[in-house]
Design goal:
- Keywords: Oxidoreductase, Peroxidase.
- One of its GO terms (molecular function) is heme binding.
- This is Cytochrome c peroxidase.
- The protein is built from 2 helices and no strands.
- It is mainly alpha-helical.
- It has a domain of 39 residues.
Length: 62
């Protein structure tokens, strides 16, 4: 999900390529149902420059 942190699509793709942040709850936050839970399925894509550009071109064509 995009939260407005990045000004363009390339920034978002770079974030997914590098990997998502997985915050660890403090003791106080451990039982908080509103504490963000990041899916373990979100792993770094490790795209190279050519793959990143191809994905960017595809998404901009939609």
């Amino acid at each position: 999900m995009h939260n407005g942190l990045f000004g363009d699509l390339r920034g978002i793709l770079n974030m997914y390529s590098a990997g998502m942040f997985h915050p660890l709850p403090t003791a106080r936050q451990k039982d908080d149902p509103l504490f963000p839970k990041t899916s373990p399925l979100l792993r770094p894509l490790q795209l190279d420059a050519q793959e990143l550009q191809a994905l960017l071109d595809f998404l901009q064509a939609l």
